[in-house]
Amino acid sequence: MSSKKGRGVVFPQRTKSRQNSTDGHRPSFSDAGEEVSSANQALENIKEQEQPKASEQTISDYEKKKANFVTRTLWTFVMIGGFFFALFMGHIYIIFIITAVQIISFKEVIAIANVPSKARDLRFTKALNWYFLGSTMYFLYGESIIYYFRHIIFFDRALQVMATHHRFISFTIHVFGFVFFVGTLKKDHLKFQFSQFAWTHMALFLINVQAHFIMNNVFEGMIWFFLPAALVITNDIFAYICGITFGRTQLIKLSPKKTVEGFVGAWVMTVLFGIFLTNILMRSKYFICPASNLGATVFSGADCEPSSVFVPRVYSTPNFWFLPPGYGISLKIAPMQIHTFFWATFASLIAPFGGFFASGLKRTFKIKDFGDSIPGHGGVTDRMDCQFIMGMFAYLYYQAFIATHKTSLGEVVSGAISLTAQDQLYLIRQMVKYLADQGVFTSDQYSAVSKIFEAAESAL
């Protein structure tokens, strides 16, 4: 059986060739060149259409960056202006800012670990978070107020009862929250509920407990609050300047833009600026005096005996054997400026790791910022990540190496109140006798007061 091969088979390329050639012959090289040129023309048309889109995208990105820069700059000046306004208006304003920072930072940190779908099923989860925040702040604020203002609190009967039993009251409030948490546990959500409980208490420690020490710094004197905060801000600025100027070596992978050169350069500049700033601040009694009058402002000033740490003294080098006889170097400087060197070192070499910790936390949850509380800057936590650990360090350093531990008036008053009525009368009589010996009372006044106390003692 024989058949003609290829009958009825149509090859596309041949059909296309016949369509392109009117005489049925294979197209020439010139025809092929025309096809190529037409294809190139089509590609050029497509590119011309895409170029305006790319150009529009570039302009749009530029406008976004410009708008973000303007917003960021504007809010930077707003924050600086608001901070210095509060600083100059007195301790109450600063405490209000610290309180607001605690609450907002706690809200931001809690939010990143929240799972909305599960939180809807567990309606008391958020309420418990805020309950534990309130109980913690009640305890910490009470501790500060009782310690620094006991000479006022213990003269009021109602406040005296609350102050005496403050820690037990705080513990009871916290225990109620703990019992309620255990009572609301659900079998299908145990892992989520316990992770939220642990996350909440971690946030309370890292934010509120450290902020408690910052508030104590305010009561000790405005310089102990302002100087650490200024050192952290200064270090951040100089780290950026030194980094973009001669930074080459990456410091840590969590923050790729941080460089070793910027890290070290910022340390040197922060030390120099810190010593200069300390020299200015310790001349103002508003900054160096403890907060005995919460109504004081930078304009009304404050009055106190400056601590010896603010009084300049002469430091001389010893007579080394390799130096000429009687030759030495003397330097007149306040001890506080020496302490500032260690503060600036901590602010430059240790405090930035608070920021690195926050960066790692954000990378864990794949977020850019903790929130959007401050337009152009992100959340409050993004600006305060280094300040918390620096404020805690400043308080502990002050208590360990600077503070002079003397018996305060508040301690004397609270101790006297705890005595029996008979012992209190005896104490007052002895104080009156001492004042009479010092010439504060005349002999007639002392005799009159003694008779009053004798009558009171006989009535007991």
From TrEMBL:
Keywords: Lipid biosynthesis, Lipid metabolism, Membrane, Nucleotidyltransferase, Phospholipid biosynthesis, Phospholipid metabolism, Transferase, Transmembrane, Transmembrane helix. Pathway: Lipid metabolism; Phospholipid metabolism; CDP-diacylglycerol biosynthesis; CDP-diacylglycerol from sn-glycerol 3-phosphate: step 3/3. It comes from the Eukaryota. Pfam families: CTP_transf_1 (PF01148). GO terms for molecular function: phosphatidate cytidylyltransferase activity. Belongs to the CDS family. InterPro entries: PC_trans, PC_Trfase_euk. It catalyses: a 1,2-diacyl-sn-glycero-3-phosphate + CTP + H(+) = a CDP-1,2-diacyl-sn-glycerol + diphosphate. The keyword Ubl conjugation does not apply. The keyword Membrane applies. The chain crosses the membrane at residues 69-88, 94-115, 127-148, 168-185, 197-215, 221-242, 263-282, 341-361. One of its GO terms (cellular component) is endoplasmic reticulum membrane. It is found in: Membrane. It is a multi-pass membrane protein. Residues 1-58 are annotated as: Disordered. This is Phosphatidate cytidylyltransferase. One of its GO terms (biological process) is CDP-diacylglycerol biosynthetic process. It is an enzyme of class 2 (transferase). It comes from Cladorrhinum samala.
